[in-house]
């Protein structure tokens, strides 16, 4: 019997270009699992998160999202893995609705369905400041299997993980305490950096 392929596979994945460096990172993340990684800097954390979704291509090593290589099949990777950036989205409610419709059009999702889904998620995240909830909601519109969090706000860890549901979650951090908040004991790994 064949074992299922990990949803996210990184093998010595590293990025080095123009003075920007990140990695190397090696991990296997299966459906429903959670893992986190501490990084030396916010810049490295962002690059690792973007490599894990295929937004930034690894300059060495290998990244596979499902069965897809982001260097060749980036659209397929983006349907499986969604990035929640660190930066909040400062928008009015009306601007966010237009943004949801725009994201829905990008991914061929019915706009009315996307708006209903966004409203449902907003109600679930009612205790979370909307500027931090909006990027999470936007990432979940396509119903990805993998949610990649770039330095998520620890104060909202419970809300973020509830919204993620049974999806695989990979998060990047700049301190081990934050990594532990998003990676329950025995559910994944995190690296403490010296």
List the helices and strands and how they pair.
Blueprint: E1 8-17, E2 20-29, E3 34-38, H1 42-53, E4 60-65, H2 74-80, E5 81-84, H3 93-106, H4 111-124, H5 130-140, E6 146-150, H6 157-164, E7 168-173, H7 176-182
Parallel strand pairs: 3-7, 5-6, 6-7
Antiparallel strand pairs: 1-2, 1-4
Task: Provide a brief overview of the structure.
The protein is α/β, with parallel strands linked by helices and 194 residues long.
Tell me about this structure:
There is one protein chain. With 194 residues, the protein is an alpha/beta fold. A hairpin with a 2-residue loop joins β1 and β2 (20-29). The mean pLDDT is 88. The chain has seven helices and seven strands, in the order βββαβαβαααβαβα. The N and C termini lie far apart (42 Å). It has a domain at 8-87 and 144-182: Rossmann fold. The radius of gyration is 16 Å and the shape is globular. The chain has a four-stranded parallel beta sheet with strand order 3-7-6-5, sandwiched between helices. A three-stranded antiparallel beta sheet has the order 2-1-4, covered by helices on one side. 38% of the residues lie in helices and 24% in strands.
